[in-house]
Amino acid sequence: MTQRPQMMADRKDAPEGDAGVATKTRPKTQRPPLYKVLLLNDDYTPMEFVVHILERFFGMNHAQAFEIMLTVHKKGLAVVGVFSFEVAETKVAQVMDFARRHQHPLQCTMEKE
Ligand code: TYC
Question: Signal peptide position in this chain (predicted)?
Fold first, then answer.
């Protein structure tokens, strides 16, 4: 069998500064929390504008974007993506800014999954 230098961390006889806690067991990895980005319905924003937003900021094709837009229109809201905190925050800001610049009342929010 191939020999390789053994680091202290690998050695079973290494001094245990960690007092024997979780050295052999599965290390606890922490996944960052995810955030849902939600689009809300209103009575004034044009359907094609919402479709454009979904294509532009959420990478959807026209058919997907149209379908999600219709879901929001009928159900009142829909999840349009799930992202890390920073990416979700950026998407919400992009959508809100774009809607405001076009004087549409479209609302976009995020919530922890
Ligand atoms: N309800 C809007 C209309 O009838 C369309 C719309 C869809 C608005 C989705 C916002 O997030 C929205 N023009």
Answer: none
Q: What topology does CATH give the domain 34-112?
A: Ribosomal Protein L30; Chain: A, (3.30.1390)
Q: What would the pLDDT profile of 42-59 be if each residue is shown by its tens digit?
A: 999 999 999 999 999 999
89 Cβ below 6 A of ligand 1: no
pTM: 0.78
Tokens found for residue 24? 């052999």
34 Cα to the center of ligand 1, angstroms: 26
What's the CA gap between 109 and 94, in Å, rounded? 11
Provide the residue ranges of all domains of the chain, joining segments of one domain with +.
Answer: 34-112
